[in-house]
Each structure stands twice: as C-alpha cells, then as structure tokens.
Design goal:
By secondary structure, the chain is of the alpha+beta class. The chain is 16% helix and 39% strand. The strands form 3 sheets. Strands 1, 2, 5, 6, 10, 12, 13, 14, 16, 17 and 18 form an 11-stranded mixed β-sheet that branches. It has a 4-stranded antiparallel β-sheet with strand order 4-3-7-8, with no helix packed on it. Strands 9-11-15 form a 3-stranded antiparallel β-sheet, with no helix packed on it.
Length: 327
C-alpha cells in the first residue's frame, strides 16, 4: 500500500508539471476493488493473524483518507480459510486496539485470526483461500512452512565453550532462505544477600544474516567466535557494579528464519539507498496484492563449559559470583 501511495503521489506531481494550463483534470478513475493480504505464518505461534484490506480512491488528500478505517477495510466479513493436507482452518475477525500510528488508521484495526498451534504440517504446503461472496471474487495463495526448533547443531551439542576459538555451526532446513542467529546470555542480579531485589535479565549478541543458495536445505552455516570475544561482549553490554551480585545462567541460541517468498518480498520493497521511485511490485497473492509467506523462531539452551564458568567470575567489574540458584 505504501508503494501504491508513492506511485499515486508521483503521478500527481507529473500531472501538475506537464498540464499547468489545464483547469479540468479528472484524477479519479472508476473504482476497481483490489484485495490486499498480509500473512506471515509461523508454526510455533498459537494464533495466526491475517491482515485483509482493500485498495481505495479519494478525491481529497490520499494520506488523510488512509487514516479513515472505512477507507481500507471491508464493511462486511469475508470467508477466510487455510488448508493443509486434509486440515481446514476457518478464520474469524477480531478488532485490535494497539496498532501503532502510521500511514493507515490506528490504533483500531480489524484482522482475521485462528488458533493454529500444532495444526500446520511442515511436511505439507499451506494454501490460503479468501472468498468475497458479495463481489464474487476468489483470492488465494500457497506457501510452505518450516520449524527452526528442529535445527541440528554441529557445535555446540551439549556445552558451549568460550576459552578457545569456536564456530557455532548448524545445518539449514528445507523451505527456509533467511537465517538470523542471536546468542542470548541469561543472568540474574540482586543486591548482596537480598533475594527480594532479584532481577532476571539477558543480553543479546546478534550475528550477520545469512541468505542460503536455495531452499533445499542441507547447507552449513558457521559463525566464528574468537577466544575472549564473549567476555568482551559481556563487559561492553553489562554495567560494572560494586553493590550487586550477579549469577550467570544458560546460553540460548535463537534462530529466526524466513522462506524465499519473504526474502523476495523484502528485496523488492527495499527502498533504502536508492533513487528508483517506480520499482516492480512483488506479490504472491492471486487476484490480489500482498504477501503470504512463512517464518519461524526456534531456540535451544546450552550450559557454559566448566572453564567458562570459572572465567566469568574473574571478569573485572561484573561481579559474577556463581550460577543462578535453583529455587
């Protein structure tokens, strides 16, 4: 929709430049219904949301019209379903009240939702079907999902060590193209001897994004961690203290992944560092516009090696005294 607005604005500028002598300009063509769909599937989500809206025309300021909920939402309910194998999931509508302000109406917005936990089969494709019976329109799309929780690590397997050079290494999955790795360090802190002041905290170390060659899976991704770099990360992210005692926790490796559809959509809509104003739109919605894609967030926990546990207690200024006590 942002790209459509951009094109309309560019067209308006062109008309004003090249037709300055004309007083009778009809900028509003006959309205044609266009269904716009946004849905990013995640098999680990308990609830799946789908944003379904319509394109619109306006005789006044188009950005003002976009702020009006009736301009972008259908006044009636559409028939929205997902199918995977023999499973049919029917979506209902719900109004959300926490949408951030932006180009379109806020904070209230209507979306379609369904409980999808454990219903999406990663071994089968998922189809989206939208019927607009009032206008006799059928909109559909298809995607395939994946689950980052099932990723296998070559390193680490049990404990993770930061005393020598190591590479976090794992194998890619079928149907995923984008991989973002985050190392999350969990810890707890409290005033010395005062359990009522306990805080459970974490800090994140992000690694460069990897785009795989294809979506067949089986590629090896490695992220190198030089010796001592982990402790530099800790001292850069955690404030020194003389009054608090800290307790180290586990290392959580988080992989956020996305399919090739979402990768293509992000590339097609990246307008940063470019002067190209009229870029080709990407959509995989049949008889409509938008994107129906898949992503996944998966994580696994690892203990630090015994030597790393000893080392972290010797890092100056951080005051780690032990591991998080079991309640």
């Amino acid at each position: 929709m942002q790209k459509t607005i951009r094109k309309i604005l560019i067209s308006l500028i062109s008309i004003f430049i090249f037709t300055t002598c004309s007083k009778d300009i009809n900028l509003i063509a006959d309205y044609e219904d266009t269904t716009i769909v946004y849905c990013i599937l995640n098999p680990n989500d308990s609830i799946t949301y789908i944003r379904v809206q319509k394109g619109f025309l306006a005789e006044g300021a188009i950005l003002d019209a976009a702020l009006i909920q009736d301009s972008i939402e259908y006044p009636y309910k559409l028939d929205v379903k997902m199918k995977t194998g023999s499973q049919v999931i029917t979506f209902d509508t719900v109004t959300l009240f926490e949408k951030e302000n932006g180009i379109f109406s806020a904070p209230k917005t209507k979306v379609y939702y369904a409980v999808t936990k454990d219903l999406l089969d990663i071994n089968k494709s998922v189809s989206l079907e939208i019927n607009n019976h009032k206008q006799n329109k059928f909109i559909n799309s298809t995607t395939s999902i994946h689950n980052s929780n099932t990723i296998e690590y070559a390193y680490p397997q049990y404990n993770i060590d930061f005393e020598d050079d190591h590479s976090i290494e794992f194998t890619t999955q079928k149907n995923a193209r984008i991989y973002d790795l985050t190392l999350r360090f969990h810890y707890m802190q409290q005033n010395a001897g005062d359990t009522s002041t306990r805080e459970y905290l974490h800090i994140d170390w992000g690694f460069p994004r990897t785009i795989t060659i294809d979506i067949l899976g089986g590629e090896t991704i490695q992220h190198f961690i030089p010796a001592e770099r982990f402790y530099t990360f800790l001292t850069n992210q955690i404030e020194e203290t003389q009054t608090k005692e800290r307790y180290y926790g586990q290392i959580e490796l988080i992989i956020s992944s996305a399919d090739n559809i979402l990768n293509t959509y992000l590339i097609a809509n990246n307008l940063e560092n470019t002067i190209v104003l009229d870029k080709p739109e990407f959509t995989n919605i049949n008889n409509g516009l938008g994107v129906f894609a898949a992503r996944s967030n998966g994580s696994r926990f690892f203990n630090m090696s015994l030597y790393s546990k000893f080392h972290i207690k010797r890092v100056p200024g951080l005051n780690f005294v032990d591991g998080i006590p079991e309640d």
